[in-house]
Every structure is written in C-alpha cells, then in structure tokens.
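Appendix B. One record, verbatim.
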Amino acid sequence: MKIVYIGTNGGLAETLVERMWQEGNDVYLLSDKELSQKPKQGSLHHFYRTPRKGESFGKLLCSISPDCVIFAGKYYISSTHEEESDADVTLLAQSLRAAAAFPHVKFILLSSIEVYGKTSGRADEFAERAAVSERGVRFIREEQLLDIYRKQHGMDAVILRASQLYTNRPKEGESDILSRNFFNAAHPDVHMSNNVFQPLHVSDFVDAVKRVLDAGNQYVYNVCGSAEVSQKCLYQMVCQHEKLSEQDIQWEDSGCVTLADSGRIRQELGWSDFRNLEE
C-alpha cells in the first residue's frame, strides 16, 4: 500500500514512518524537512518537500498515486495554539483538492479532542463540536473542510481525534505536552491551571492510525490515554526528575479541558494504549 504522510518531521512522523514500513507499506513523507532522526532500519521512506502551490501538490500526488493520505500538518503535536498554526488549514485545503482527484484514496485527518470544548462528562464521537480554545477552533475548521469534500466528492475519509501526545524525548523549544512541562518547571508562572489530561504516547497513537487505516469503517474515532494526570501532578513529577525545587504556585481550577471517551476504537478495532506517562 502507498501511504502519504503530510506533516512536520518530528517524533510522530518518525514513529509513523517506521511502523508503516514494518507493516510492508510504501511510505511517502511530505514535509518541509527530512526526518531529524533516521529510523532504526535506515531509509524506509520517500521524502518530498511540501509543494507551495496547489497545482504542484496535485501533480505530486498524481505521480505517487497513493492508496491513503494521512494529514497531520506542521503543528499537529503542539499542545498550544500559535498564529502560524492556522497555515495548517490552508495546507489541508490543498491536500484535499489534490486527493479528491483519486476517489479510491482513504483520507485520514488527525484531529484533536479539543473540538468538543469543556464537557461535564466524557465526550464520545456523538458529542457536538463546540470548542472553547483557539486550538480546538482550528481543528473544527479542518474537520469542516473535510466534511465538505467528503460530501461533494464522496471521499473515503476518517477523522481521528487524539488527546495530548508526547514522546520519549522532550526537548527545549518543542511544543508537545511533555516538552512544554519540562520548560514550565524550570520557568514556572505564579498562576497555573490544574488541568486534567489524558496523555497518549505517539507509539500508541500510531497503532490507532494503523487500525483505522486497516479496518476503520466509522467517520470519527476518539483515541485517548487511559491514565489521567493533572497539571499539578505532572509539574511535581518533572521537578522530581530534574531535581528542581517546587516553586510557590497558586493552582487554579482547570480551564478549557476536554476529557474524551475512546470506547469506540477499543471495542470495534481492539485498540489499547500500553504506555503510561507517569511511568
């Protein structure tokens, strides 16, 4: 199977490329840069720089003739919203226009549980989209674009909404949830919201992508870590790990946080997460 992944060259791309190659697929990475770390098995994929113009995008996909397109975008793993990340909506529009010319292609949009907004209980796939964060609004815009192309062109499409992702390699300057918390522990604010998260390791997330690719027959799936962790607990764990003294912080009630239910993907596709952020 020919699989095209559109996104940045970080930990998620590295894990996905290696997993898809191990499953016997022909993997194409469309990104601004080649993978920063070589996969364990060497060169397992084809790299193309993401085209700047829609016409070039279409020509590139035509030359590849993919069976599946997985769209993450440049800022997917980021745990915050930045103005630059709105460019992902434009990149998705270009990708959808190009992919619509291939009716057999399965299009998987990687989205976020933040589209649900703040809920009193756990949001399942039937919950209304009502984001209360800028990041959630961006993902709603992306999902709405996919809705339009799916209806107008009959695209085989799936939305996979994930909770907060992390890797084993937190780095300064990175924007995933774990990297940001290492930075925040060293440069704490006086006030912090004691949000509750459902962190998900990228390897478990990639396994969910693979199961959706192979057997997913629903339009929307949630995929979340089964172990919840509060911002306060995460801060304390990072301080212990880095041997930092805890600062005097005023912990406030949780802000715009969604807790989601991933029962559908567990029951229908047999998915489970195996990695725990606390461990």
